[in-house]
Amino acid sequence: MWRFLGTRIATGALTIWVTTVLVTLLIHAVPGDPVQIMYAQSQGTTPEQIEEVRRSLGLDRSIPVQYLMFMERLFQGDLGNTIRGGQPVLDVILERLPNTLVLACAAMLIAILIGVPIGFLAAYREGSLIDTGLMILAIGGISMPHFWLGLMLLFLFALELGWLPVSGNGPLNLILPAMTLGLSNAAIFARLTRSSMIDVMQQDFVQTAYAKGLPKSLVLRRHVLRAGLLPVVTMMGLQFAFMMGGAIVVENIFSWNGVGRMAVEAIFQRDYPVIQGFILTFSIVVVVVAISIDALYAVLDPRIRRS
Amino acid sequence: MATDMRGRSASPGFWRRMLRSPNGVVGLAIVLTLIFCAAFADVLSPYDPTKMGTGGRFLPPGGEFLLGTDEFGRDMFSRILHGSRITLLVGAVAVGISLTVGMLVGMVAAFRRGWVEAVLMRGTDVLFSFTETLIALSFVAVLGPSLQNAVIAVGVAGIPFYARTCYSAALVETSKPYFEASVAAGAGPARLVFAHLLPNVLPTMIVVATLGVSTAILAAAGLSFLGLGAQPPTSEWGYMLAGSRDYINRAPWLMTIPGLAIAITVLGFNLLGDGLRTSLDPVERR
């Protein structure tokens, strides 16, 4: 088990390290002069000011030196200042990150609560009309663009019916974005749960359980469900990453004040320190969640726990 | 032609199974319709898709303008038809990038083994945990928003997944007797990769790529929706959807129609991929 987790943690650390390198290089990959581009939109910037920014970003040094400077500041918790407003990037991100995490977690909960029972039911009734119907629904759900679903929910529940607010950051405001993100992922969970359960139902140990005369409900609960949910748990890490990615779009539809909306604004404004901070934060969150889920998986699966 | 295809496909009876799978048939029908629309968009469109004031503003669907008009009085039907061209092209180019590079990486890693394999696959692992969204967004952040950059971004973002899939498929092949026999017979690397590995991983990769077209189309439409992809006056569906937000009360069809177009396209490729998988892969057939 420790070997399994050790590999995962090493890959995660490598990912974050590669991110820091890529983030430093990112600004150099921009076609043209990044500082000029950043200030192209603001009027009356003097050449002296531009030189000042270039120095403060370390762009007048060689790339390896820039990287070391970046890492040194990073370890001091300094991600630089935003180009628009000059606030510390870390503060801006930390202020909004909880909103994104709340959205992603709520969506994950919705996706699991809807997707897993549907998948289980379909597997239980494999080959029946219910199964076919549910799986048609699921493939439809997977094909639905979440930004379209978001707009339609917004139109229906906020504008036509007026039950929920259009935008903002209260608890009621969470419902629509979380539903948007959750529903489109519920279909993925449903399909995965179904195929995993069907797989398990054909295994020898399930046949043995039936053969020794256990009632169906007990076999399903004790044997099939436990073993069948393991692949679903493994997928949760990847799904969380999808949710974080999906949050970028959904936050923009519902004006949810998270890091995704911040990132898109930063791309439009060419605010590179914010973009760098966002990429780094995103990959750290995804890596940490993935490792936590791998740890959970290792504890749940005896084959790994005892290895 | 049927005999030809049957002779070449990985498992016999491919077309028979394909035509028996309801998913595959519906998917194929949708995709062929889309290709038809895209190919004959100029002939089928009653109006110029970018010409403003073709009709009045916000004319509802039905009547002279089949799908209504938008905020500039442009004909929605013509715009949707021309949009299919962009969508299919976006899907094809993005998947083409992911597939070509991904297959090359996967096959070389499985074939070369040793440190080449270690470097390529660890690199792929790292990029994979980066997630496609972040890779795509970073690319657009660097290159700047445009449809072309969005397609490149989506294509590059898909590489790790294709590389991984191709790698595991190729790895299975390299351990089969025919492959070992070929190595023993002294076949060179080019022959081994292109004559043996490639045709045998191709069925798997075709399924992955077909399903991948839908993912790529969704991702690119998502970028355009955010304003990071297609720019005006393109009739790209994601971009049209983004513009509809401001008129959601006044002209809801501006939202429903492009959204439906994306959903049907993506559904078509998903169903086709599903049908292909069950027809091509005798092991996974159920």
Structural summary, described in words:
The complex is a heterodimer of chains A (307) and B (286). Chain A has 13 helices and no strands. Chain A has 307 residues and is an all-alpha fold. In chain A, α10 packs antiparallel against α12 and α11 (259-269) runs antiparallel to α12. The longest helix of chain A is centred in the C-terminal third of the chain and has 38 residues, at 216-253. Chain A is flat and about 85 Å long. The model of chain A has no long low-confidence stretch (mean pLDDT 85). Chain B has 286 residues and is mainly alpha-helical. Chain B has helices at residues 2-8, 14-20, 22-39, 41-44, 76-112, 114-130, 132-143, 147-174, 177-184, 189-225, 237-244, 253-280. In chain B, α2 (14-20) crosses α12. Chains A and B meet through α1, α6, α7, α10 and α11 of A and α6, α7, α10, α11 and α12 of B.
The number of helical runs of chain B is 12
If you average the pLDDT of chain B, what whole number results? Answer: 85
Oligomeric state of the chains? heterodimer
Q: Which stretches of chain B are low in confidence, meaning pLDDT under 50 for 5 or more residues running? A: 1-10
Strands of chain A, total number: 0
Overall structural class of chain B, as computed from helix and strand content, comes to mainly alpha
Distance between the termini of chain A: 6 Å
- Our count of helices of chain A gives 13
Unreliably modeled segments of chain A = none
What are the defining features of this structure?
heterodimer, A: 307 residues, mainly alpha, 0% strand, B: 286 residues, 12 helices, elongated
Précis, in short:
The complex is a heterodimer of chains A (307) and B (286). By secondary structure, chain A is mainly α. Chain A has helices at 2-29, 34-39, 47-56, 63-75, 89-124, 129-143, 146-160, 171-201, 204-211, 216-253, 259-269, 272-300, 302-305.
Question: How are the SSEs placed, and which strands pair?
Answer:
The complex is a heterodimer of chains A (307) and B (286).
Chain A: H1 2-29, H2 34-39, H3 47-56, H4 63-75, H5 89-124, H6 129-143, H7 146-160, H8 171-201, H9 204-211, H10 216-253, H11 259-269, H12 272-300, H13 302-305
Helix pairs in contact in A: 1-4, 1-12, 5-6, 5-8, 5-10, 5-12, 6-8, 7-8, 7-10, 8-10, 9-10, 10-11, 10-12, 11-12
Chain B: H1 2-8, H2 14-20, H3 22-39, H4 41-44, H5 76-112, H6 114-130, H7 132-143, H8 147-174, H9 177-184, H10 189-225, H11 237-244, H12 253-280
